[in-house]
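Sequence only, no structure available. Ideas?
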Amino acid sequence: WILLDNILVNQLFGVDLGLGMTVVTFDWTQILWIGSPLMYPWWAEVHIFFGFILFFWIITLILYYTNTWDLAYFPLNNSNSYDRYGNVYNVLAVLSASNRFNLTAYENYSPLYLPMTYAMTYILAFALSTCVLMHMILYHGRSLLNGVKKIRVEQDDIHAKLMCNYPEVPDWWYLVCFFGFFLLMVVVVEVWHMAVPVWASVALPTLYVLPSGFIFTMTGQGITLNLLAQIIPGTLMAGDPVANMIFKAYSVQTLMESTSFVQDLKLGHYIKVPPRATFLVQFVGTLLASFIQIGVKQWMFNNIPDIYTPNQPSFLTCPHNEV
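Reply:
I predicted one. Tokens follow.
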């Protein structure tokens, strides 16, 4: 409401297309966007706060106002992607009739440009994908090695002693679940001819489950594979966006569900819920949610007019799926 026509002021202090530098909110829903500050250690919150200021309020502005990658011609902060004419990117213009990437059409149309904040998100995601592995090796490598050797590195605390009264989940329960759902994944890929390398979509979350678990346990912030799960299939299955998204869904959801399951086991450990009960509740809940979620989404697509369009009356615009 101040200096509405001033571009610089709106870029710095705007909350829609700007960086929101003056926004202070007491809306708990907004505060909880990255997790409850009442539950996470203070040093993790400090890292998040100053990391945000450094990368998005300082480095992003430097890159933007120096017109790095020609991105100063586009909005500073937005969830859309753009073409060289400054319009929202028309994805259909670079797809063939069979929904495959058409390189000739892409070269004739335009490269894809991202707003600078979105580009910074990609930069940080690439950095994160390697630094979490090195962090685990440097800071937790010895603990992992001792765990593999089954060497006890510390005494059981009171929680571990009390939980010894409950039988652990047998390994074969996990193996049956893994191989059962892995076979279902193979069947889906082969029957519908999706050409997705299932081994790679499983290997990626397997590689990151321990680093993500360490970070999530200490900070409450989970690690996602969004970028790697796009780049790797984009290289292995070049030109096939459907297979790319299926690969991403398998990889990202596998890691997210793994860390969520470990989180529930940890909670059960502290409140003394038997591990087998936690396992069964998670298994049944996940199985039911798989069918219910797909059913609800299919109903929404069939019955809600203009869903996933910018002017949808109820704001069901699916902003997280635009890029």
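Residues 116-148 form the longest helix (33 residues).
Hope that gets you unstuck.
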